[in-house]
Amino acid sequence: MADLLIHDAIVVTMNQENQVLKDGSVRVTDGFISSVAPTDPSDRDSTADRVIDASGKVVIPGLIDAHRHTDFALVQGLFSELGGGELLKEAFALYHTAEPALGESFFEAAWQLACLRQLTHGVTTVNAMDFTPELGAESIDESGLRAVIGPELADFLNPASADDQLAAARRFIESYHDTYEGRVTASIAPGGEAGCSRRLWEGVAELRADYPDLRLHTHLYDSSEADTMAAGSGADDPLDLLDQYDLLDERTLLTHLLHADRDDARRIADASAHVLHCPTVYSYFQAGSQSWFPLPALREFDVNVVIGLDDPFWFDSWDLIQEAKHARLLSNFEYGSQQWSSYDMLRMLTIDAAHALGLDDHVGSLEPGKRADLLVIDVDTPRLQPFSNLPSVLTNSVTAGDIETVVVDGEVLMVEHSVKSMDVEAVRAAARRERKRLQARTGWETSLAGTTPPEKSILRRMSARPLLRAMGQYGRGFLTSSRG
Ligand SMILES: [Zn+2]
After folding, report:
1. Ligand 1 mean position, distance from CA 214 (Å)
2. What is the C-alpha separation between 204 and 202, in angstroms, rounded?
3. How far is the CA of 244 from the centre of ligand 1 (A)?
4. Which of 56, 156, 288, 334 would suit a FRET pair with 259, their CA atoms being 20 to 30 Å apart?
5. In this structure, what are the phi and psi dihedrals at residue 405, rounded to the nearest 5 degrees?
6. What are the CA-CA distances from residue 148 to residues 77, 93, 177, 202, 403 (Å)?
7. Helix (H, G, I), strand (E, B) or coil at 300
8. What is the pLDDT of residue 481?
9. Mean pLDDT for each consecutive 10-residue tract of the chain (484 residues)?
10. Which residues form the Amidohydrolase-related domain (predicted)?
11. What domains appear along the chain, each with residue ranges and CATH number?
12. CB-CB contact of 216 with 204 (8 Å)
């Protein structure tokens, strides 16, 4: 007996045969997909515990956000009218001074709000890099979602010493890796060539040797000063830096690569590493003169490129489908049309992202034996009908608001837009309360018209920290590259 049966759906399986069923049924038993098949008339009278009539609806695998930071989710709206340079200075001031004062309740509320938004946007798995990973794991558990969480390691950014950060990361891995029925796994997450000392890279290499099953998740080549920063760690360039510590292989996830070139793309392909592309944050703020990531070369060498929202609270969007659309628009603008097909985009949001995270045996497609992570999307609306090219509809026309139902691990977390796994009002109340506290402590003012940063923000809040020296040395490039 199935626990869940969805019938009469257009089922986009994302399996190896790219199979789409016009009138399909998906059965779920004990959290696993037990069958995907054409709808049999008897399915409509099924006595499964839960039956969803998906006539006029599309079922796709849950979306996977391949790169995101979460712990400052409550700053949404504060930064969205700022310029790139201003944004980065204000963001750094928050990162650097707010964390000890704001305390756990702030970050807990941030994670819960982020989980709620992730869920309502159909993002069933997130690959997160954060300073508050334990709170993240617990929020992910409560929400019913799935996550890979890396404690962000960056001793040029976080005042804690490299050794203390490494010890904390080890504790996180020991306590949280492969917990909550496997919905939470850990990664090793050094911030990147700009944020880490040699001692930290050495420690990362030790962690990697001790936990070979984990992904290494980092930022790379996100500023034009990347080579200089790698040279500061005794390497020729950022990829050489990873190579020196034996960190560049098929378990490595490289975020941004804005300033990488064709040769770098070939080296990434040779290592079978994966690229996590986050187009909006860079195009929205355009900090400094920007180059774009080398998509044609990455595709020429068949590198797995997937999509992430990065810091969605900076530009006020949690919609991963929109993020993929931005990726296509910006790449087409830079390199000419047809850089990706619509079906490529769907793969990037599902099975290719699962492959990057090492989860493709479990999620990313709708196939018997996989965990049941899926979305029901309403396409039977005047806004979307009539259509013929379904992948184009799903990547160009559908928005997160069309996602009706979200299932993770066979559990129905949202049904017909109603969230079941979280107390929505409590999450909203905590977010409002903590946001008020943030504003009171930092001096940020808000109104319906926008926001105003604190008067004497940077120098007062950032004095006598190692970061200030780094800023003087690298200026905007350092800021751009350390937490984008
Ligand atoms: Zn990032």
Report:
1. 18
2. 5
3. 23
4. 156
5. -135, 140
6. 26, 27, 9, 23, 23
7. helix
8. 43
9. 94 97 98 98 96 97 97 89 81 66 90 98 98 97 98 89 97 98 98 91 98 97 85 90 97 95 97 97 76 93 98 93 96 94 97 98 98 97 94 96 98 98 98 91 83 65 43 35 47
10. 58-412
11. 4-60+366-419 (2.30.40.10), 63-357 (3.20.20.140)
12. yes
Cα-to-centroid distance, 101 and ligand 1 (Å): 23
HSE-CB at 15 with a 13 A cutoff on CA atoms is 13
User: 208 CB contacts (<8 Å, ≥6 apart)?
Assistant: 188, 214, 216, 245, 246, 247
How far is the C-alpha of 345 from the C-alpha of 352, rounded, in Å? 10
Distance 282 CA to ligand 1 centre (A): 11
The phi, psi pair for 157, rounded to 5°, reads -115, -45
User: How close is the Cα of 306 to the center of ligand 1, in Å?
Assistant: 14
The DSSP secondary-structure symbol of 62 reads P
What does the pLDDT read at residue 233?
83
What are the structure tokens assigned to 344, written together?
Answer: 């490529």
User: Distance between CA atoms of 277 and 288, rounded to whole angstroms?
Assistant: 18
280 CA to middle of ligand 1, Å? 12
Tokens of 37: 């098949």
Identify the pLDDT of residue 225: 84
Reference 160, options 134, 132, 193; nearest CA is 132
Q: How far is the centre of ligand 1, averaged over its atoms, from the C-alpha of 222 (Å)? A: 10
Question: What element of type H or E holds 9?
Answer: strand 4-12
| Cβ-contact 125, 363 below 8 angstroms | yes
Distance 483 CA to ligand 1 centre (A): 5
Cα 98 to the chain's mean position, in Å?
23
pLDDT at 152: 96
pLDDT of residue 470: 38
The span from the CA of 16 to the CA of 45, in Å, is 31
Ligand 1 midpoint to CA 130 (Å)? 9
* Contact assessment for residue 214 and residue 247, using Cβ atoms and an 8 Å cutoff: no
Degrees, nearest 5: CA angle 296-297-298: 95
**Virtual CA dihedral for 451, 126, 268, 224, nearest 10 degrees?**
10
Helices (H) and strands (E) in the chain, counts: 19, 19
Q: Which two tokens stand for residue 286?
A: 């355009």
